[in-house]
Each structure stands twice: as structure tokens, then as C-alpha cells.
Design a protein that fits this description.
The structure holds two protein chains of two kinds. Chain A is an alpha/beta fold. Chain A has one domain (about 1-160): Fructose Permease, CATH 3.40.35. Chain A has helices at about 15-25, 40-50, 60-75, 85-95, 125-135, 155-159, and strands at about 1-10, 30-35, 55-60, 80-85, 100-105, 115-120, 120-125, 140-145, 150-155. Chain A has a seven-stranded mixed β-sheet. In chain A, α2 (about 40-50) links the parallel β2 and β3. The longest helix of chain A has 13 residues, at about 60-75. The radius of gyration of chain A is 15 Å and the shape is globular. By secondary structure, chain B is mainly alpha-helical. Chain B has helices at about 10-20, 35-45, 50-60, 70-85, 90-130, 135-160, 165-170, 170-200, 210-225, 230-250. Chain B is elongated and about 75 Å long. The chains are: A alpha/beta, B mainly alpha. Chains A and B meet through α1 and α2 of A and α5 and α8 of B.
């Protein structure tokens, strides 16, 4: 049917995604956009372990994914596009590709230099600037871990 | 990777017992990170590490990590095996990062989504069928934990045996099919539950046929559609049935 969710989540394919968003949106395909994982078969095997029986996953480089976004939107499958960094999502969005669409911030976890904004989103200066750059591409960014939780808009996250 | 001469690393049993406490360490900052390190300590000690070297090794396992608590043994076992066979730290980090989401997702599907509701429903069926109270409680505790302990043991053994290759050795799809079957089981039980309840509690003079029919219809629906139901749907159904019962007894 189309891409039903764009999500930035360091854990990529995990419980919140396949149990939370998957059934809610009727997802049957996941596209992970990550240059490193696109060429690492053994890591892909580990990520694919968590897929429900009726869902599939592709691992694409940022360039491949950029070239295939229109195709994915025309596809009969309902797809979730996942990146583990803000940078990768911004690269996808460049050139108005995601203008007017929503990007979901699902999980950026603790690491040195980052501070907590909501329990599942920790941001440092680099991430703050990254999110601003993503918003400048005309994307509506908000944080929400599960379909049932409250969405937190970018202003609140950065404020 | 499976070589015949390989034996389990020293301290593996102590590490297994520590896994029962791992969920107690859950936090938003590292999730199960500190718990993972806690479970690694017996293995690191038995490798002869102490003092600063032990500190450093424990610290290296404290990074953000998450998993379903019953399946964490897959990751712990595999990491223990990889460290034992000299796999580099970067590969181990990548392994932990890649498998964590799957262990969380599969565990949610298998345990919280299927096994727990299915065993509770079975206990409810027994309770509403009129057994003494200790029967459903006992059956639930024994059955649920038999599955729980078997799963923990299986997960840890698989991790220890296959190390980095565990991803291709255990079939995620088979596990999720198992979850679906357990879920269908839950659906069937919900149907039986509705049937048993309707027939045994709401039967009035002359209405026996009607209620028996309703009971069988509920059973059929559970059988047919149980596996498609979402957890929230199941919950609402149980709530509705409970309400009907409360009203019927009032």
C-alpha cells in the first residue's frame, strides 16, 4: 500500500516495532536503511530473527533507499522504514522526498554527552542539530515509542 | 563453529542462576545493560580476572542492551562462547546490538502475547468449571513455570552451543509460529471459557438449549478467529465475560 511509518530507532526491529506498531498499522514489510548493515549478512540474520512469520525485511544503503522510496510508496505491501540514526533519515529526506510526512522518533538511548528528554529519547548537541536539519527538510518530527503513547513534538523535545 | 571438543565455560551455571534476577536491573538508561554485566561476572571471575582487569571487563558489558528476560540466555551464552573462543570486542558489540531487538520482540510475542494469556485462560476455564480454588492456581503456576524454565534453559544452551552463529541456528520464524499456535490455543480456551461459563452459570429453566448453543458458538469463534485476535481484543472479551458473570450472579 505504501510506507506507513518512518521511524528513527537505535534498536531497529524490536518488540515495540513488531508487537506495537506492526499489528496497529498492519505492517508486512520492514526496510532498514543503514550503510553498514546493508553489507553485513550475519548482523541482518540476527535482526531478522525477531520478525513475525508474515513479515519480511530488506536492508538497504541510504543511496539504494533514496532511489526506491517512490517504488515503496507504490508497493502493495505496508512498509515501515527504519533508521538507527538521525543522519540517515535526513539523508533520505533530502530533496523534498519526505516533505509533509511524519517521522517518528522511537528510541535514541543513553550514551556519553546525551541528556534525557523523554525516557526513550536522549539527545546531545549533535542530535539536536540533526533533528533541526531534518525538520528543515519539511518533515514533521515527533517522539512516540508506541502507538498508544502521547506524541511529543520537536519543540518540546528541544526546549 | 560447533567443535566437538568445546566444553561449557567455567562459571556458566552461576551465570545461569543470575539470569533469574536480570529484570530487576531494568532501567531506561541502559535497560538490561547492568544486568547483563552482573550475569557475566561469574564467567569473568572464573576466567581468572580480578581487580582492575575484572573492573574493566565488567564495564565493557554495561552498555545499553535489552532483551526479553527469558531469552537473554541466548545473548549471554553466545557472548560467553565468543569471548571464550577469542572473538574481538567489536564483533561482540555488534552481536549484542543486532540480537537485542529480536530477543525482545520474540519474547514479547511468545510469552506476554501467547504463553501467559493461554495458561491464565486455562486456569480460568478450570476455575469456572467449578474445581476447588487450589487447582487452577496450582495448574497455572506449574504449567506456566514449566514453560518459563524450559525456555530459559533452552535459550542459554543454544547461545552457549552456537555462539555467533546462533542467529542462523535458531529459527525465529519457527518461534513466532509457536507463539501463534499458543495464541490460537488461548483463543480456543477463551471460547471454551465462554461456553463453560454460559452453560454452567446462566442456564435458566427452559433456556438450556439457547445457552448451550451460545456456548458452542463462542467455542467455534474462538477456534476460528482466536489466533487473529489482538491482545487488547482478548482483554476486552475477558472483561465482557466477567461482567456478564457478575450481572448473572447479582
Amino acid at each position: 500500500m505504501s510506507v506507513v511509518l518512518y521511524r528513527i530507532d537505535e534498536r531497529l526491529i524490536h518488540g515495540q516495532v513488531v508487537m506495537g506498531w506492526g499489528p496497529q498499522l498492519g505492517v508486512d514489510h520492514y526496510v532498514v536503511v543503514d550503510d553498514e548493515l546493508a553489507t553485513s549478512q550475519w548482523e541482518q540474520d540476527l535482526y531478522r530473527l525477531g520478525l513475525p512469520d508474515n513479515a519480511s525485511a530488506d536492508f538497504l544503503t541510504v543511496d539504494d533507499a533514496r532511489a526506491r522510496l517512490t517504488e515503496l510508496d507504490a508497493d502493495a505491501r505496508k512498509t515501515v522504514v527504519l533508521t538507527r540514526t538521525i543522519v540517515a533519515m535526513t539523508a533520505l529526506a533530502e530533496g523534498d522526498r519526505l516533505r509533509g510526512r511524519e517521522v517518528n522518533l522511537g528510541g535514541l538511548h543513553h550514551s556519553p554527552g546525551r541528556t534525557e528528554r523523554v525516557p526513550y529519547v536522549f539527545l546531545g548537541q549533535e542530535e539536536e542539530e540533526g533533528l533541526q536539519a531534518l525538520a528543515d527538510e519539511g518533515v514533521e518530527v515527533s517522539a512516540r515509542d508506541l502507538p498508544g503513547s502521547r506524541a511529543v513534538d520537536l519543540e518540546t523535545l528541544l526546549g | 563453529m560447533t567443535d566437538v571438543n568445546w566444553t561449557k565455560p567455567a562459571g556458566w551455571m552461576a551465570s545461569f542462576f543470575r539470569q533469574f534476577f536480570i529484570q530487576g536491573s531494568w532501567n531506561f538508561r541502559s535497560m538490561l545493560g547492568s544486568g547483563f554485566a552482573y550475569c557475566m561476572i561469574p564467567l569473568l571471575r572464573r576466567r581468572g580476572l580480578s581487580g582492575d582487569a575484572l573492573d574493566e571487563a565488567v564495564r565493557s558489558h554495561m552498555g545499553t542492551f535489552n532483551s526479553h528476560p527469558y531469552l537473554v540466555g541466548i545473548a549471554l551464552g553466545a557472548v560467553a562462547r565468543m569471548e571464550d573462543s577469542g572473538t574481538d570486542a567489536e564483533t561482540i558489540e555488534k552481536f549484542k546490538r543486532a540480537i537485542q531487538g529480536s530477543l525482545g520482540g520474540l519474547g514479547d510475542l511468545l510469552i506476554w502475547g501467547a504463553w501467559l494469556p493461554a495458561t491464565i485462560l486455562l486456569a480460568l476455564v478450570l476455575a469456572w468449571a467449578g474445581t476447588p480454588p487450589w487447582v487452577p492456581v496450582g495448574v497455572f503456576l506449574i504449567l506456566y513455570n514449566a514453560g518459563h524454565l524450559a525456555l530459559r534453559w533452552w535459550a542459554y544452551s543454544q547461545g552457549l552451543e552456537y555462539g555467533k552463529d546462533v542467529g542462523v541456528r535458531i529459527r525465529g520464524a519457527e518461534l513466532s509460529r509457536l507463539a501463534e499456535r499458543a495464541f490460537s490455543g488461548g483463543g480456543v480456551l477463551l471460547g471454551i471459557l465462554a461456553g463453560v461459563f454460559l452453560v454452567s452459570h446462566l442456564v435458566g429453566e427452559g433456556a438450556v438449549v439457547l445457552w448451550a448453543f451460545a456456548g458452542f458458538a463462542a467455542f467455534g469463534l474462538g477456534l476460528k478467529f482466536g489466533h487473529r485476535a489482538l491482545r487488547s481484543t482478548t482483554f476486552v472479551l475477558v472483561l465482557v465475560i466477567t461482567l456478564i458473570m457478575a450481572l448473572g450472579n447479582a
